[in-house]
Design brief:
Number of strands: 0
Shape: elongated
Order of helices and strands: HHHHHHHHHHH
Oligomer: single chain
C-alpha cells in the first residue's frame, strides 16, 4: 500500500470518527480550541499528521484551529469570509468584519449623496463618519490584520482607512481649507476638480492592484473589489470631465455612486459571512469560491475521490 493510499485511509478513518469527536466536544469543553496544546499532546505523531491533512478539507479536530503550520494567505479566513481559524496561542479575534463594516457604512452614505438622494449635494455629513469609523476604525482593523499575519488584509484595510481620513481632511468645512485655498488661486477655479479627479484615479490604480490579488479568492470578495474599482474610475472621470462651470460631470458621478452602493452592500455581505459560524447562527451565507482557487481545487479533488 503506497503512502497516498495510506493517508487516504487515515483521512477516511478520521472522518468516520469525527462525529464521536464532536459529541465529546459538547460533553467536555476542555477539548475545545482553548485546550489546543493539550489536544496535541494526546495525539500520536501519526494521528496529528492525519488530523492536519483532514483539516485542509474542513473537518477533524484541527479544522477550526490554525496550528501555526498552515500559512496565513490573504484569503485564509482573515480578510475573506469563511471559517476563521485563530492562530494557536494568540488571542486575536478576526478583524476583517470590523474593517469591512467601517468601509461599507462610510461608502454607503457617500454613495447615496453621489446619486443625488433627497437632493443632498454636499458631502459634509460624511466627514464625521470618515474620521471616526471609515478612517480610524478601519485603520485599526488593518493594523490588527497585520498582527494576525495577513499582509493583504493589512494593506487593504489600512490603505482605505487612510483614504477616508484623507477624504475627511479635504472636505472638513472651515477646517483645513484645502478646497477653498486651491479654488482661490488666480486662474485656477477648476483646479480643485482636476486635482480631486487625479486623487480618485490614483485610488482606482491601487484598487486595480488589489483586484488582481483577489482572482483566486471568492466570487463575493472579487465582486467587492471590482465594484469599488469601477466606482473610483467613474468618479475620477466625473471630476476630470467637468462641465467647465465648476461642476463634475453628473452622469459619471451618479454611475460611480451606484457602483459605490453595490460595493458597500458587498462589503457588508462579506463582513456578515465572516461573522456567522455554527456558534452564533443556524446558517452561513455562501461566498462561492472560484473553481481555480486553492479551496475550489481541494473541494473538486475531494468530490472526485468520493466518486471513485
Amino acid at each position: 500500500m503506497d503512502s497516498t493510499t495510506t493517508q487516504d485511509h487515515h483521512v477516511e478513518q478520521l472522518e468516520a470518527n469525527n462525529k464521536d469527536y464532536h459529541n465529546s466536544m459538547h460533553n467536555d469543553s476542555r477539548l475545545g480550541q482553548n485546550n489546543f496544546n493539550g489536544l496535541n499532546r494526546k495525539m500520536t505523531h501519526e494521528e496529528h499528521a492525519t488530523a492536519t491533512a483532514a483539516a485542509r478539507f474542513g473537518y477533524g479536530p484541527l479544522a477550526h484551529v490554525n496550528s501555526g503550520e498552515a500559512r496565513l494567505p490573504a484569503f485564509g479566513g482573515e480578510f475573506q469570509p469563511g471559517t476563521y481559524r485563530p492562530v494557536a496561542e494568540r488571542k486575536f479575534a478576526n478583524p476583517a468584519p470590523l474593517g469591512l463594516s467601517a468601509f461599507a457604512l462610510t461608502t454607503f452614505v457617500l454613495s447615496l449623496i453621489n446619486v443625488g438622494t433627497r437632493g443632498i449635494a454636499q458631502p459634509n455629513i460624511v466627514v464625521g463618519i470618515a474620521f471616526g469609523y471609515g478612517g480610524l476604525i478601519q485603520l485599526l482593523a488593518g493594523m490588527w490584520e497585520m498582527a494576525v499575519g495577513n499582509t493583504f488584509g493589512a494593506t487593504a484595510l489600512s490603505s482605505y482607512g487612510g483614504f477616508w481620513l484623507a477624504f475627511a481632511i479635504i472636505f472638513t468645512p472651515g477646517g483645513f481649507e484645502i478646497q477653498s485655498s486651491v479654488e482661490a488661486t488666480p486662474g485656477s477655479a477648476l483646479q480643485f476638480l482636476d486635482s480631486f479627479g487625479l486623487f480618485l484615479m490614483g485610488w482606482f490604480i491601487f484598487t486595480t492592484v488589489l483586484l488582481v490579488a483577489t482572482l483566486r479568492s471568492t466570487i463575493a470578495f472579487f465582486s467587492l473589489f471590482f465594484t469599488l474599482d469601477m466606482a473610483f474610475l467613474l468618479l475620477g472621470i466625473g471630476y476630470l470631465q467637468h462641465d467647465g462651470a465648476g461642476n463634475p460631470q453628473p452622469g459619471c458621478i451618479k454611475a460611480g455612486g451606484v457602483f459605490g452602493l453595490l460595493a458597500s452592500f458587498l462589503a457588508w455581505y462579506n463582513a456578515l459571512a465572516g461573522i456567522l459560524d455554527d456558534s452564533n447562527s443556524f446558517f452561513v451565507i455562501p461566498v462561492a469560491h472560484f473553481p481555480w482557487s486553492v479551496t475550489g481545487r481541494e473541494r473538486r479533488m475531494k468530490s472526485e475521490r468520493a466518486q471513485v
